[in-house]
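Notes from the 1:1 (GR / supervisor)

We went over the backlog. Supervisor wanted to see one worked example end to end before approving the batch request, so GR pasted a single chain during the call. The sequence is below; no edits were made to it. Supervisor asked that the structure be written out right there so they could see what the output format looks like.
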Amino acid sequence: MTDTRQRKITQADIDNRFTYHPPTDPAVRERHEQARACARTAAEFLVDLLPPGRETALAITKLEEVLFWANAAIAREGSGDALNAPTSAP
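Structure output shown during the call:
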C-alpha cells in the first residue's frame, strides 16, 4: 500500500521554488520554446472554436497555467523537487 501523504516543505524546497532558474543550455531553451508554441497553438485553436465569454477566457487562463507549470517542470528538472511525489509506506 502506498502512503500518499505529502512531506513537510523544507527551506530547500522554498529556495528552489522561489529562485529563478535561467536556461543555460540551448536544448533547455528549445524545450521552453516548444512548450510555449504548443500552448499558443492550443490557445489560437480554442479562440477560433469557442464563443466569446467567461468560459473561453477561463480556458485561455488555464492554458497560461499549463505553460507556467510546463516551464517550471523544465526549469526545475533535476533540482530535487519531489515535494508532491508520493512516499512509500515504511
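Supervisor's comment: The beta strands are 2-3, 87-88.
Batch request approved.
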